[in-house]
Amino acid sequence: MRIANIDGRLALAAGNGYIDVEQASGGAFGADPQAVYDVWAEFTNWAARLDTSGHPVIGVTEQTLWGPPVPRPRQVFAIGLNYHDHAAESGLESPAVPPVFTKFPTSLTGHGQPVALPADTVDWEVELVAVIGTRCDYVDAADAWDRIAGVTVGQDLSERGLQLAGPAPQFSLGKSYRGFAPIGPELVTVDELPDRDDLEIGCALDGGEVLQKGRTSDLIFSVPQLVAHLSAVCPLLPGDLIFTGTPSGVGGARKPPKFLRPGDVLTSWIEGVGTLRNTMTAP
């Protein structure tokens, strides 16, 4: 199953387009994309039984407004240094426990939406984003995938100047400018994936220059391990996001460093999940 936030409304993928969930369900489920995560089990049961042929399909056009498939999460967790090669390019040891920070929810935006660059040191970090579907409180790793609603493509955009400003780094603030957490276009349930633990992940600029390319099987801490670790500290709530970390290839680690510029189109992809595009603009 694939769902999306189309023009601010919850939509279910069907054929070459989408079905409006509120209309198709006769109001049993509302139009708000965020609200569905609080009734995820009921929603997935309904969607599995739905005969999509009996409902009008909304086609995707250049005018389609893609919002984030999770527009208002209560908590956003982000994991640093979660690929060995990224830790190495950062000049750091691979961590023994997951380094955790947050991206504030107001930084979220959707596929196709512009991102204003507040400085000339904004970096890219493509990430698999896991979405919680059921409250997680002291969840074992063996049970964690059953608590995941699905996954989506994300970018942990980072303004390195603010992020690394001393005397104490400002990770959360430097990664939370407006639009610095694009996700989408869809949330994809894991049964749709060729291998939920081993997916190609990467990003490139519009000219075709590949910036990052890796596989999620190289995560130091897998999605189930992250759910177990985080839920031992605090409950994870339906609709919460986990940005799981980025592979090597970030701009700040290059010699010389390379950063995003106005006019750049950043294309991010994950095998079986989708392709996310965002254009960088001047402040």
From TrEMBL:
<protein>
    <submittedName>
        <fullName>Fumarylacetoacetate hydrolase family protein</fullName>
    </submittedName>
</protein>
<comment type="similarity">
    <text>Belongs to the FAH family.</text>
</comment>
<dbReference type="GO" id="GO:0016787">
    <property type="term" value="F:hydrolase activity"/>
</dbReference>
<dbReference type="InterPro" id="IPR051121">
    <property type="entry name" value="FAH"/>
</dbReference>
<dbReference type="Pfam" id="PF01557">
    <property type="entry name" value="FAA_hydrolase"/>
</dbReference>
<dbReference type="InterPro" id="IPR011234">
    <property type="entry name" value="Fumarylacetoacetase-like_C"/>
</dbReference>
<dbReference type="InterPro" id="IPR036663">
    <property type="entry name" value="Fumarylacetoacetase_C_sf"/>
</dbReference>
<keyword id="KW-0479">Metal-binding</keyword>
<keyword id="KW-0378">Hydrolase</keyword>
<feature type="domain" description="Fumarylacetoacetase-like C-terminal">
    <location>
        <begin position="76"/>
        <end position="280"/>
    </location>
</feature>
